[in-house]
Specification:
alpha+beta, Baseplate assembly protein, Baseplate_J-like_C, 3 strands
């Protein structure tokens, strides 16, 4: 199988509230579950699914810097996330 490496870099903008770390941790947990589930032959990496994973309660919007496009794989390829970064960009309100 061919391994296709990718990275995820996202900035999370939160609704105003007291604590940002529990929100970031919840988003990270869902993102890690998505990364793990997609680490199979032929499983595409879709931006829409990354957005969905990161939109946990408390997140107002997500800016995704990477990947810049969906990563479409064939049945001989598997994805491998070499790194991910989740940054809190503050509040939008």
């Amino acid at each position: 199988a061919e391994i296709v490496n990718y990275q995820i870099n996202a900035t999370l903008y939160l609704y105003p509230g007291p604590e940002s770390e529990p929100i970031r941790a919840a988003a990270e947990a869902k993102l890690k579950a998505y990364i793990s589930a997609q680490h199979r032959l032929g499983r595409d990496i879709r931006k829409s699914a990354i957005y969905a994973a990161l939109h946990v309660e408390g997140v107002q919007r997500v800016e995704l810097a990477a990947p810049v496009a969906d990563i479409v794989l064939d049945n001989t390829q598997a994805s491998f996330c070499t790194d991910y970064s989740l940054v809190i960009g503050g509040s939008d309100e």
